[in-house]
Amino acid sequence: MMNFKVLLSGSLFMVLCGLWGFISNYKHLLNTLLSLEFLMLGIFWLVSLQMTSLGSEIYFSLFFLTFAACEGVLGLSLLILIVRSHGNDQFSSFNL
């Protein structure tokens, strides 16, 4: 039981660090994408811990991991498109 509490607190810490990184690194698109991926990894860890503690199937976590990978690919493709068109990934160089 103690080991589960340590894993749960570690995964919650990962989620909070990912949120803090997403909020504080708003100047560069690459930093925000990396913090989003870290946030998704923490949420995946929480979901997998919850699924294993309930004794249910882990297929939902595989679906979540697939969607997280698709989100990462879309983010990187947008980053490449923005860097090619604007020259950098700083949000201050965009004209909205």
UniProtKB/TrEMBL annotation:
Q: Where in the cell is it found?
A: Mitochondrion inner membrane; Mitochondrion membrane
Write the Enzyme Commission number(s) for this entry: 7.1.1.2
Where is the chain membrane-spanning?
6-23, 30-52, 58-83
Question: A GO CC term?
Answer: mitochondrial inner membrane
Q: Name one GO molecular function term.
A: NADH dehydrogenase (ubiquinone) activity
Protein name as catalogued: NADH-ubiquinone oxidoreductase chain 4L
InterPro entries attached here?
Answer: NADH_UbQ_OxRdtase_chain4L/K, NUOK/Mnh_C1-like
Q: How does it sit in the membrane?
A: Multi-pass membrane protein
Where's it mainly located? mitochondrion
What Gene3D superfamilies does this protein map onto?
Answer: 1.10.287.3510
Establish whether keyword Transmembrane is in the entry.
yes
Keyword hit for Transit peptide? no
Report the family membership: Belongs to the complex I subunit 4L family.
**What is its biological role?**
Core subunit of the mitochondrial membrane respiratory chain NADH dehydrogenase (Complex I) which catalyzes electron transfer from NADH through the respiratory chain, using ubiquinone as an electron acceptor.
Q: Name one GO biological process term.
A: ATP synthesis coupled electron transport
Q: Which gene encodes it?
A: ND4L
Q: What Pfam families does the database record attribute to this sequence? A: Oxidored_q2
| Entry keyword set | Electron transport, Membrane, Mitochondrion, Mitochondrion inner membrane, NAD, Respiratory chain, Translocase, Transmembrane, Transmembrane helix, Transport, Ubiquinone
Catalytic reaction(s) noted:
a ubiquinone + NADH + 5 H(+)(in) = a ubiquinol + NAD(+) + 4 H(+)(out)
Top EC class, one word: translocase
